[in-house]
Hints:
Strand order of the largest sheet: 4-3-2-1-5
Oligomer: single chain
Order of helices and strands: EHEHHHEHHEHE
Number of strands: 5
Number of domains: 1
Number of helices: 7
Amino acid sequence: MSTPAPKVVVFLHSGDYDRVHQGLAIAAAAVAAGRRAEVYLFWWALERFLQGRLDEPDFTPPREDVVDRFETRRLPTLRTLLEHLRESGLATVQGCTGSLGALGAEAQADSLADKGPIDGWVGWSAILQRTAGVVDRFYL
């Protein structure tokens, strides 16, 4: 019997499109390789998910040349990467309760966990417990 591959953990703090894209792409690569992936959303990354801004690349400062390349090369959007993670059955996306409170968005929590892009809500105690000993951690 072989030992399962270690999981990959991605901590997304920035809401910048390129950083969120990179984090979800890392998780997508992990699940494509048969590894479990956990994505944790904080502050501005969480805000992007709460606002549903997952479809159109929006770079700051604006980079129309990069947006054009995204479209020309048919690079996946954040929503497409998220759907890949969901379909794999190997990934979870968790929102931080502290960040949720700081953003004043507690009213949105239940609907997002029920039918949205977020699987559940966790605080730092749970995050530290779930990620203890994980070597492959990415902070974006």
